[in-house]
Amino acid sequence: MPNCFRPDVLLTYNEINEAYITKAPEIIMEVISKSTAKRDEVHKFKIYEEEKVKYYVIVYPNDLKAKVYRLDGKEYTKEGDFSLETYDFEETTCKASINFANVFERFRK
């Protein structure tokens, strides 16, 4: 069975049809839960890397942090752990950034 994923969030600048995308997204974000942790951290990580997704962001809402990985050639390198910072995605077709303080604001209350 082929890999068929439905990421929590993705950003693509390619044309899409109604059923699926035909090229790798530039950014994928997955929100970790106890039931998805292993799949998101291991299996999807490897597949997204192989499919050349430029950025993979793993969000840990219970820990109020996100790990950002950037594709460097054929493999991901960790850009860092973020909780209050803004991260600028430099290697995308259009500039994009995420303010993680805003992402986690509702979880801090």
> What's the arrangement of strands in the largest beta sheet?
1-2-3-4-5
User: What does the average pLDDT come to?
Assistant: 89
Helix content: 10-25%
Q: Segments where pLDDT lies below 50 for 5+ residues? A: none
Q: Any idea of the CATH class?
A: Alpha Beta
Give the biggest beta sheet: 5 strands, mixed
Distance between the termini: 42 Å
Tell me the number of helical segments per DSSP (H or I, 4 or more residues long): 2
- Radius of gyration, whole Å: 14 Å
Number of domains: 1
Run of helices and strands = EEHEEEEEH
Give a short synopsis of this structure.
The protein has 109 residues and is an alpha+beta fold.
List the helices and strands and how they pair.
Blueprint: E1 9-11, E2 27-31, H1 37-50, E3 55-60, E4 65-72, E5 75-82, E6 86-89, E7 96-99, H2 100-104
Your description of this structure?
This protein is of the alpha+beta class and about 110 residues long. It has one domain (about 10-105): Alpha-Beta Complex (tt1808, chain A). About 15% of the residues lie in helices and about 35% in strands. It has two helices and seven strands; from the N terminus they run E-E-H-E-E-E-E-E-H. The strands form two sheets. A five-stranded mixed beta sheet has the order 1-2-3-4-5, with helices on one face. A two-stranded antiparallel ribbon has the order 6-7. The longest helix has 14 residues, at about 35-50. The mean pLDDT is about 90.
